[in-house]
Design a protein that fits this description.
mainly alpha, DUF3723, elongated
Length: 547
Amino acid sequence: EREHRIPVIIELGVLATALETSGVDAETLIGSRDGPPVLHLPDSSLECLHGQHRILAANRYLGSDSRWWVVDRYDKGNGLDSSERLQQYFHEGYPNSKSMSDGEILWRIRLYNRSGQRDLEQNMWCYVSLSKRKDLRQLLANGALRKAFDNLLHWPGLWPSMRLGTLHRLLTMRCDEEAVRYLQHIRNIWTRICMDRANVVVGADCKTVEMLQLRAPCASSADWKYINQEMDSKLLFPTITDINDRKVVRESIHQMRQIPSLFTFFADLKYLETYAKAFRSIIGSPQGTIHECMSHLYTSDGLTYSHLLVELQDGTFRECTRNAADGREFGYQQLWLYLMRHFPVMVAATPRKENGKTKPEIKEPDPRIWHGFATLARHLGFDSDAIAALHETDPDEKAAREFLCGSRPPRQYSIKPGELQNGICQISRILKSMSTRGQMPGQGPALVTSDCSGEVLSTRCGRPFQRSHEYDRDYMYIDLLYCAEPESKGITSLYSRREIFFAFLGRRVLQRAGTKRRPNDMLGTPESRRPAPAERSLSVGEIVECP
């Protein structure tokens, strides 16, 4: 087996002498894979490329008649370049030369591919199991995702935490745009931390990435204190020794919100995956990404060109100025936020279990919540057959029918013609008269806390925990997330949820102002839903990258 053989470099002249001395011809040597002949090199030595420790052990423990080894011979060639390439090949790519994580393997595959070192690239593929190879090839065939990952090759420390077994989730979610945006966010943050300086980039080793990921130094004084301590001890960026360089890096880190990495990316995909399941149920088409499909469903029906609807936490909407692209993207973001608030009663998923608490039970889908999702989608300018069907289904009428039929089963009670339907209509009207209780205005979101160190690192990514979700859902509204940057001792779960949302969906320019309207004001025909001119304008614009 190859891993038990020793690769060596040999000059052709030395090989010819060895064959003559040993009485072996070249044809016999080439055709002797299963029983290689013994070659004697009395006056020569060979350069060992890998496995020298085995030879040293053999010299120590084996008798003189047993001190032999099967070798793979490589021609030294005519110059140093060939020898150096072979040394690099076996130092970096020989099987079992060292234990490498999935992320390191992919990092090398892409690095060798981009530098044209096909032999090293192919050798790295040997490390990828057959079960993972299909997903990896599918990833690399996706130009946008491949480029987004390639843009992170400058930071080897980001890659060890990556697991190729998680690629299947990424490839089946149909959230390519969101994934690419998150990966671009990682690149932007680490470029800012390292100031695009080569010596600092090299210093961002695996340990540095592990210690910085999920920290929020600009908002959390506890996180900033920790980072200062680790910078002083030189555990962060240990290879950077210049005092001024370390000072500049420290100042750069201090400007960062929650610091992402490839570890947080794959953890947060689990968070996004839950909501993507619900989104896929309304787009109809089995082809294309969710964003592509929703863009095709955007009609801006009932809205003038100059207005945008922003849903508020008290159940009302604010009308603001916009252009078509802003209306589509802000509407798209608001639909994601709706799913984040209500996912436990929309899909077969739950928040994570709190320590010491019972595991949350999966609930039946709530038709009222699904109806609300379809209604919101239409208010925001999205429509499809699935959305229309959900919107036309009256959840109050269904609840009234279930109540009456359960309380007075038709098989047991004599019900006059039309009496059941009249009762259903009466109860349905009563239910409709009870408006949803929104969050009281003025109770702003708690993004930071003065209590201890705030949200622990392990809960700052991935699916939310139950207690956190129950609090955060009241504040997952676009105008509340686009608020001023607070500072305190620690950050809350809501702060982390907000950063994950912006990492996937992007942070756009938003100023809160406009005319307030209630949902009932927008019902009826498209003309009756068309909003009046805004009294105050809301400026919206392109996505901007923030720290």
